[in-house]
Each structure stands twice: as structure tokens, then as C-alpha cells.
Design a protein that fits this description.
The structure is a single chain. The chain has helices spanning 13-25, 36-46, 49-56, 63-70, 118-129, 143-148, 165-177, 196-201, 213-216, 219-225, 240-252, 257-263, 265-276, 287-293, 306-314, 336-347, 362-370, 380-411, and strands at residues 2-3, 75-77, 92-94, 97-99, 103-105, 133-135, 155-159, 183-186, 298-303, 319-322, 353-355, 375-378, 425-427. By secondary structure, it is α/β, with parallel strands linked by helices. It has 2 domains: 2-198 and 279-427, Alpha-Beta Barrel (TIM Barrel), CATH 3.20.20.70; 202-276, no CATH class. Strands 5-12-11-10-9-8-7-6 form an 8-stranded parallel sheet. Strands 1-4-3 form a 3-stranded mixed sheet, with no helix packed on it. A two-stranded antiparallel sheet has the order 2-13.
């Protein structure tokens, strides 16, 4: 087991409260809002309308986004008294890593929309706290560059299963080479959800060459660019806006502006990415191919039905993530906290269960753990913090989540993760 020492191992909720209130005595306000609603509102005030829509938006009417939050209220915490909680240990072990508390950073793509340092800033913050970062397949910086920021701190890799199995194998081998602890296969985005905020703005960042750094840095993808492309090109009008977007693409893509302009390689890369990035024909039988490529634990992300959880175990999968993609794929889908109990029952402690979508504080983490989750993941909160204060903002939001959870755990009468269970909850 890797013992990933970090500041959070020697940090407590009391420490967080003290440093905040003492700083206030000297006239210093918190770097980012503690209130998650204010955090989102403040981020919205500084982000472009396209960036905020892409990060905050869900599918359709945002019904699933809202349900992810409201369904947490269907469970109430029942605090227990006169239990010694003077020492509290919120740490867990997961796939050979010791984590400061049961939380990971969800894979979020196109972080360059909110901050120039994007994934690199998040990687540094994650390393400083010991919280695992799941590298996005749609990252703004290659996974190798992010790994150099993290030392021995844990990291995973999110895989979007491409139409090219050779590219899938290449991405997985790269993840192994940089010390990832697990591969998380995102299953719920074989087709792009009906995201009306993005559609109203007619904005998709990938068409501008954003969020494709894992591809442009991959040897297999670059070889595919040199092969004949028989895909049908979408007809578009050439306007001044078109020219500006192409210039931006040429500047951002690896290789240098004039070289890119001559070769038109960035345009080829965007076209190739759009053509192969996901595979709607993916089935359970395809998982054998991935298992043959790696000895790393494989986690399936997007599981919402207990039968799918049982199928995952039958196919030798090492973990599952209960997720509806933050409400971004299916409007009106079941919330993750609502789906969790049936999946926990189906899994019956045979493999770890993670949960994301809708987690906004320590009480949410506590409820998920009590219902049987091994850990949770957060996405939008750390992205908003990144937008406001870069690396420091991400570090601050992680410290806030840690302190909130540790305090909730202690006030509920639990001194360790093992003591959190269904006896601590009441269904409404």
C-alpha cells in the first residue's frame, strides 16, 4: 500500500476553522466562498458565457442536475451522543493507496475554458492534499505533463472508448507508464447528451481544438492523422468568426502557428477526433479487450442499474462508479444517491463503489458512505474554485470538503469510516 503523506493527514476541521477565523481578525477574507452556491455564482461572474454553460449545464431541462442535489434531502443524519470522537480518522484505502478521506476529483474535460493552467493546476493541488485526481480523456494538457506535477500522489485515468481499439490500448499503456492506480471507463457518453445551453450558444469546444491534448500527444492518434480520411465533411460557411476560430486553433495546437497553418494538421486532428472519440457500439463483450491491455484495476463509470453492477462483477471488473455524468447526459435520469442503495445491495461488498454527481459538502459524503459507497467524487466545485483562484482555489475547496466531512463525522458520533453505516441515517 502506498502511504501518500500529505498535509491533510495532519489537518483537522478545527484547524480549518481556526485559521479562517484568525485570518478574519487580521482582515483577510476566504480565498473562495465556503458556500457552494456562492462559489458557483462567483465563478459565473468571471467566466465566459460559453465556459459557464459548458461546465454548469446539464441535459435538456437540467432536471437530472437538480435531482442529484434534491435527493440528498431524502436521507437525514441521526447524530449519536457521548461517544469519544476526540480523535477522528476519515482516511480510507483504495486500490493500494491510502487516501486522506473518501473523495476523488472527477475527470473534467476542457479545463482551459476556466484557467490557463487547467489540469496542471488541479494536479498540483491534488498532490498537495493527497486527493487522487482522475485525469480526463478530454484534458487540456497531456497526462504525462500532469503526472510530473504530482510526484507519488495517486492519480487515475478516465478512458473514453474510441472507435479505434489501437488508440484505446495506447492511452491505457500511457496511463500505466505514468503510475495511474486505475482506469475509469466512462460508459454513459457513447453519444453526446442533448445539452441545450451549449446548443443555444452553438458552442462545442472540441471543434476549436480544445480538450484534445491526450489525442494530439498520442503516437497512435498522430499516425491515424496520416491515413486517408473518408469521413463526410460537414459543410460550413466561412465567416470572419470562422477565420478567428481557425487562427486560435493554429496557435493552440502543438507544433507552432505557421507550421500548423501549412500542414493543416490541427484541422485534421479535430476532424479525426470528432469521428472516432466515442463508440456507441460498445458492449460487455468488449471489456475483455481492455482487460487484456492492462493489469490495472478497471472501474466502470456510469452505472445506475443494479443489474449492470452485477454484470460488471461477472465480467471481472474491479470497481464501479455510480454516476449520471453530473446530469449532463440524460434529462430525467435517476439521481446517483437514489440509485446507490440498490447497487450496494447488488454488489454485496465484492468490489469498491464510488459515487459522483451532486456531492456538495461533508454531509453528502457522510450520507453516501453510510449508504455503502466506498468514496465519492466531485467535479463542478473544484472547477469553480479553479476558475476563481487557480491551484490555490482547488486546494482550498479540497480542504473545505475535508474539514466539513471530518466535522460531520465527529458530530454524528463516528471516529472512523468503519463506524459510518445505515444506523446513522433515516429515510424521509
Amino acid at each position: 500500500m502506498k502511504n501518500n503523506r500529505s498535509s491533510l493527514f495532519n489537518y483537522s476541521a478545527v484547524d480549518r476553522q481556526k485559521e479562517t477565523y484568525v485570518a478574519g481578525m487580521s482582515g483577510f477574507s476566504p480565498l473562495i466562498p465556503f458556500d457552494q452556491k456562492k462559489l458557483e455564482e462567483k465563478a459565473k461572474s468571471i467566466l465566459s458565457k460559453e465556459a459557464f454553460a459548458y461546465i454548469a449545464g446539464g441535459a435538456g431541462t437540467d432536471g437530472t442536475v437538480q435531482q442529484n442535489r434534491s435527493d440528498f434531502s431524502k436521507w437525514k443524519i441521526i447524530p449519536r451522543m457521548l461517544r469519544d470522537v476526540s480523535s477522528r480518522d476519515p482516511s480510507i484505502e483504495l486500490f493500494g493507496d491510502k487516501l486522506p478521506f473518501p473523495l476523488l476529483l472527477s475527470p473534467i474535460g476542457v479545463l482551459e475554458l476556466v484557467h490557463r493552467q487547467a489540469d496542471l493546476a488541479v494536479a498540483r493541488a491534488a498532490a498537495q492534499t493527497g486527493v487522487p485526481m482522475i485525469f480526463s480523456n478530454q484534458a487540456s494538457y497531456p497526462m504525462e505533463q500532469c503526472a510530473t506535477q504530482m510526484g507519488e500522489s495517486p492519480r487515475w485515468f478516465q478512458l473514453y472508448w474510441s472507435k479505434s481499439n489501437e488508440l484505446v490500448a495506447s492511452l491505457v499503456k500511457r496511463a500505466e507508464a505514468i503510475g495511474c492506480s486505475a482506469i475509469t471507463v466512462t460508459l454513459d457518453t457513447t453519444l453526446l447528451g442533448w445539452r441545450i445551453r451549449d446548443l443555444d450558444l452553438a458552442y462545442l469546444p472540441f471543434l476549436r481544438g480544445k480538450g484534445i491534448a491526450q489525442y494530439s500527444s498520442d503516437p497512435v492518434f498522430n499516425r491515424l492523422l496520416d491515413e486517408p480520411d473518408n469521413s463526410e465533411e460537414i459543410e460550413r460557411k466561412v465567416t470572419l468568426e470562422t477565420i478567428f476560430n481557425v487562427i486560435e486553433l493554429m496557435r493552440c495546437y502543438p507544433g507552432g502557428f505557421f507550421q500548423n497553418l501549412r500542414s493543416k494538421r490541427p484541422l485534421k486532428a479535430v476532424r479525426k477526433f470528432i469521428g472516432i472519440y466515442s463508440r456507441p457500439s460498445l458492449t460487455w463483450q468488449d471489456l475483455a479487450f481492455l482487460r487484456a491491455q492492462t493489469s490495472l484495476p478497471i472501474v466502470l463509470k456510469g452505472i445506475l442499474h443494479p443489474e449492470d453492477a452485477r454484470m460488471a462483477i461477472d465480467h471481472g471488473i474491479d470497481g464501479i462508479m455510480v454516476s449520471n455524468h453530473g446530469g449532463r447526459q440524460v434529462d430525467g435520469a435517476i439521481s446517483t444517491i437514489e440509485a446507490l442503495p440498490a447497487i450496494v445491495e447488488a454488489v454485496d461488498q465484492r468490489i469498491p463503489i464510488l459515487m459522483d454527481s451532486g456531492v456538495r459538502g461533508g454531509a453528502d459524503i457522510f450520507k453516501a458512505i453510510a449508504l455503502g459507497a466506498t468514496a465519492v467524487c466531485i467535479g463542478r466545485p473544484f472547477v469553480y474554485a479553479l476558475a476563481l483562484a487557480g491551484e490555490k482555489g482547488v486546494r482550498e475547496v479540497l480542504k473545505n470538503f475535508y474539514a466539513d466531512f471530518e466535522l460531520t463525522m465527529g458530530l454524528a458520533g463516528c471516529s472512523s469510516i468503519a463506524e459510518i453505516n445505515l444506523d446513522n441515517l433515516q429515510a424521509v
